[in-house]
Amino acid sequence: MEAARLGAAGAAGLHKAFCPKAARELVGNVDAFLFDCDGGSSDLVWSGVIWKGEKLIEGVTKALQALRSMGKKVGFVTNNSTKSRKQYVEKFRGLGISVHEDEIYPSSFGAAMYLKVNNFPQDKKVYAIGGDGILEEMSFAGYTCLGVTKDANKKMELKRGFKFEHDKSVGAVVVGLDPYINYYKIQYATMCIRENPGCLFIATDRDAVGPLTDVQEWPGTGSMVGAICGSTQKEPIIVGKPATFMMEFLLKRFNMSTSRMCMVGDSFPDVLFGQNSGCKTILVLSGV
Amino acid sequence: MEAARLGAAGAAGLHKAFCPKAARELVGNVDAFLFDCDGGSSDLVWSGVIWKGEKLIEGVTKALQALRSMGKKVGFVTNNSTKSRKQYVEKFRGLGISVHEDEIYPSSFGAAMYLKVNNFPQDKKVYAIGGDGILEEMSFAGYTCLGVTKDANKKMELKRGFKFEHDKSVGAVVVGLDPYINYYKIQYATMCIRENPGCLFIATDRDAVGPLTDVQEWPGTGSMVGAICGSTQKEPIIVGKPATFMMEFLLKRFNMSTSRMCMVGDSFPDVLFGQNSGCKTILVLSGV
């Protein structure tokens, strides 16, 4: 475990890190670099290591080119579950960076992979609180996903005799960042977890802050997860940072040991994510 | 501490408890009986010790008359924050029971009394997630209360540059059961707690279940509180059962020691509430 702190902001700082001798040594000892690229939904705000606001952080393109030319693998790991990998590729393209879908690891994808890795049956459904990124990743993985934006405007008339029905074939509830959280969704998720035998409760992450606009902080996935914990009195399986699921998944995919990986992030959860898994970490000082 | 378990349902069982010799002894040693009367919002469902559905539990009127004729004090303590004491008096009247406002202790009133007891300044405002019971009790106590049903349909356009404004004079956030919970309310409460120096975070209770209709269980205040804990990473002050604030308040009001009080409830939180305070407890088996 080795945490390097770069004084300059974002990937500009990261790029500088490749110049000094110490940084060259680090690069020499690492085969894969994982980058945080935390950003918000709705194409609004992106802050952190790769972009900030709508702008690419200076030096990012050069740094990525340099790493690739040295034969290093790169991966982008984010707790933002509102987008799918496909949507991220578009986002990168819009900023002039060419990345492959297989290099992007948002927690929406993480949730789908958690189900895959654990042989979640294809005939079971997923109920999701969150954005369409989760819906897309679940569909790519072959799962039927209920909820998400389809339930954004659902209301109920809470009168005597009213019975709330839920799908008994839901075998997993996935909770991600959802600015359209409502009581209908909370009740749906709660009933699946309470009443469907063996139903999984998965959180994409538990971040307190969700970067939805560029002006201020917004309640993060931690709010949606807290609401479901409060009614079910259960704790979720977390697939995003700083939990280690994504790192374990990446190690298998990259066929690599942790000592040859380095996580570059702008927040303590990023550093924890790296350190929890025993890989090298770099903290850039542009973020949370 | 002494927990009596009554086999028969609700207050019918309670009434029976006053017949055997052991029960007479209990009554002889107790000067005040506190009853749970858990019920739902919107005049929908009431279950537990005093009523169940829309019906008074058999024997309740007789039992209350018997206690009053023996000079015992009675109090009704509920975690249901959706109604005020005034609204409860009406509810009791509709069921043919005459009670005084001063005998009713819903957690909406508890939250207002918590502020009073702690000298919360009158020029500070309260932001509440919950029903109009909280609004009414705050108004009776002389406080300005924002939020509640007024924010039920609030929406935001989360576009670039949008800035969410909140009242800097809010000095306390109160969270109760709210079937109209939304992201606007979560953001409002979160910003007050995060940005207003010294802002209190008060929960009426943290119950997992809210008895909103008579057919099934619904997410309780625990959901709304969990959402705010998730975004603020703070823990609330809890005024409802099983926390001891209401008991301490009642002991002062009744000018009585705990050993002369007995809590009659239909749930373990009720029993805990009694036992946490060191008073006698009776669990009736009609409830949660």
UniProtKB/TrEMBL annotation, chains A, B:
Keywords recorded for this protein, A-Z: Hydrolase, Magnesium, Metal-binding
Key word Metal-binding present: yes
Binding annotation for Mg(2+): 36, 38, 266
Gene3D superfamilies: HAD superfamily/HAD-like
Molecular function GO terms recorded: metal ion binding; phosphoglycolate phosphatase activity
Residues given in the record as substrate binding sites: 241
Enzyme Commission (EC) number: 3.1.3.18
Identification of the protein by name: Phosphoglycolate phosphatase
Cofactor note text: Divalent metal ions. Mg(2+) is the most effective.
Family to which the UniProt record says this protein belongs: Belongs to the HAD-like hydrolase superfamily. CbbY/CbbZ/Gph/YieH family.
EC class name: hydrolase
Catalytic activity: 2-phosphoglycolate + H2O = glycolate + phosphate
Active site as annotated: 36 (nucleophile), 38 (proton donor)
An example Gene Ontology CC term for this record: cytoplasm
Cofactor(s) listed in the protein's UniProt record: Mg(2+)
Organism: Colocasia esculenta (Wild taro)
InterPro entries: HAD-like_sf, HAD-SF_hydro_IIA, HAD_sf, PGP_euk
UniProt cross-references to Pfam families, sorted A to Z: Hydrolase_6, Hydrolase_like
KW Metal-binding (keyword) present: yes
Highest rank taxon of the organism: Eukaryota
